[in-house]
Amino acid sequence: MSPPISVAEAEAIVFGLVAPLRECEVAGLDALVERVLAEPIVSADDFPAADNSAMDGYAVRAADLKDCSPQQPRWLRVVEEIPAGRMPRASLDPGEAARIFTGGMLPDGADAIVIQENARREGDRVAVWEPVPPHTFVRTRASFYRAGTPLLSPGTLLGPPEVAVLAVARHTEALVYRRPRVAIFSTGDELVAPGVSPQPAQIVDSNQHALATWVAQNGGVPLRFGIIPDRPDALRGAIAHAIATADVVLSTGGVSVGEYDYVEQVLAELGGTLHVRAVAIKPGKPLTVATFTSDDRVCLYFGLPGNPVSALASCWRFVGPALRKLSGRRCGWQPLFVPARTRDNLCGAGRRETYLWGRLAIAAGELTFSLAGGSHSSGNLINLAGTNGLAVVPLGQPAIAAGEVVQVLQVGAIDAAAGAFTAGTEI
Ligand SMILES: Nc1nc2c(c(=O)[nH]1)N[C@H]1C(S)=C(S)[C@@H](COP(=O)(O)OP(=O)(O)OC[C@H]3O[C@@H](n4cnc5c(N)ncnc54)[C@H](O)[C@@H]3O)O[C@H]1N2
Ligand code: MOO
Ligand SMILES: [Mg+2]
């Protein structure tokens, strides 16, 4: 294995290799979750489109009420009722009010709302005893957005609020970037599929399923290519097929220095350009990154380490940002580090930047980090369950004491309440 390069160098190389995909497709409003917008969305309408009431009450002319008081209430004649969705029939003349409900359109002449709690209705009259300034509880036409205002820009990741905006802008569908196709396979003679009972020397292939789930969660289309034996000819066939099919390839295993670690050799034989061979990071040191360039496209190959924690840690640290950038996201694709106070002592691995998995939570208004209980071997995937952050012990730093603030790579949603984190803890 070549001498490992630093995490910063690896990051610069990997992210620099990625050019966002340009191909687009149209998707319906209900199929936009985790999609990236490829067109600017501009409002065709004022929003709100008309003055409307923010409360249930009475539409009034504010000038009518300027001298009213509890001693001298002002009686107004109620001329109509305006529920949401109904056009007002007439304009308000001085001394008149309209019964109105939240979302109801103001009649011409009205410029304020008196909430019903501050009015007393008697027949077709209503008494008001507190003046209201003009615009009180009125959502004025175009006060949120004017027609022609840009609402969403290309590169935006779409979620519920953005879909609401699209709907309001009267889009029933949107142009989005196509999702990156990600080929995934596991290498190893020892691997069997889940559901098969392994012999003593065999293990279950968990990586392929973890990575497929992770790819789908990160906006890619996972294409599972199965388990490939540790034989150069078999690997050659699998890699050739994968690079011809996908934008990104993720293989696990076979990238270290063992006799049966053939991935790098096969990548070179197939004409790949090798950019990264090993990184000074724990877990995840043997990381192979290569590109295959043809006339019209580049395929990015990640040869991830076989150890299950190393494979996912490499995804969180390097592949995820690359995949999000490839997906067309203009911002938010970079890895997210948050400062958190560690509840446990954290030990570094000397010559490698160390990532210790565990749980971020908010306790008493502060972000905290709890180390996962149990072994921190990169083969122990059991205590990886529930991980939403990996604390970073920088290169050369032997340890970080409990109570200190540490940078944590956030990889999942943060809890509201902190608790000690141990394997098997209900989460
Ligand atoms: N002499 C040295 N040996 C090793 C070094 C080193 O620097 N010098 N690096 C170690 C590190 S660090 C890692 S990480 C591993 C990476 O090894 P490979 O990427 O070559 O992966 P394999 O050898 O194929 O497998 C490693 C380990 O992971 C298990 N595995 C593999 N695939 C899967 C899967 N799909 N699902 C679950 N588990 C899997 C496999 O059985 C091995 O136990 O190399 C170290 N060695
Ligand atoms: O990098 Mo390996 O991932 O230390 O086990
Ligand atoms: Mg190996």
Automatic annotation (TrEMBL):
<dbReference type="InterPro" id="IPR036135">
    <property type="entry name" value="MoeA_linker/N_sf"/>
</dbReference>
<dbReference type="Pfam" id="PF00994">
    <property type="entry name" value="MoCF_biosynth"/>
</dbReference>
<protein>
    <recommendedName>
        <fullName>Molybdopterin molybdenumtransferase</fullName>
        <ecNumber>2.10.1.1</ecNumber>
    </recommendedName>
</protein>
<keyword id="KW-0479">Metal-binding</keyword>
<comment type="function">
    <text>Catalyzes the insertion of molybdate into adenylated molybdopterin with the concomitant release of AMP.</text>
</comment>
<comment type="pathway">
    <text>Cofactor biosynthesis; molybdopterin biosynthesis.</text>
</comment>
<dbReference type="Pfam" id="PF03453">
    <property type="entry name" value="MoeA_N"/>
</dbReference>
<dbReference type="GO" id="GO:0006777">
    <property type="term" value="P:Mo-molybdopterin cofactor biosynthetic process"/>
</dbReference>
<dbReference type="Pfam" id="PF03454">
    <property type="entry name" value="MoeA_C"/>
</dbReference>
<dbReference type="GO" id="GO:0005829">
    <property type="term" value="C:cytosol"/>
</dbReference>
<keyword id="KW-0501">Molybdenum cofactor biosynthesis</keyword>
<dbReference type="InterPro" id="IPR005110">
    <property type="entry name" value="MoeA_linker/N"/>
</dbReference>
<dbReference type="GO" id="GO:0061599">
    <property type="term" value="F:molybdopterin molybdotransferase activity"/>
</dbReference>
<dbReference type="GO" id="GO:0046872">
    <property type="term" value="F:metal ion binding"/>
</dbReference>
<comment type="similarity">
    <text>Belongs to the MoeA family.</text>
</comment>
<keyword id="KW-0500">Molybdenum</keyword>
<dbReference type="InterPro" id="IPR001453">
    <property type="entry name" value="MoaB/Mog_dom"/>
</dbReference>
<keyword id="KW-0808">Transferase</keyword>
<keyword id="KW-0460">Magnesium</keyword>
<feature type="domain" description="MoaB/Mog">
    <location>
        <begin position="183"/>
        <end position="325"/>
    </location>
</feature>
<dbReference type="InterPro" id="IPR005111">
    <property type="entry name" value="MoeA_C_domain_IV"/>
</dbReference>
<dbReference type="InterPro" id="IPR036688">
    <property type="entry name" value="MoeA_C_domain_IV_sf"/>
</dbReference>
<dbReference type="InterPro" id="IPR036425">
    <property type="entry name" value="MoaB/Mog-like_dom_sf"/>
</dbReference>
<dbReference type="InterPro" id="IPR008284">
    <property type="entry name" value="MoCF_biosynth_CS"/>
</dbReference>
<dbReference type="InterPro" id="IPR038987">
    <property type="entry name" value="MoeA-like"/>
</dbReference>
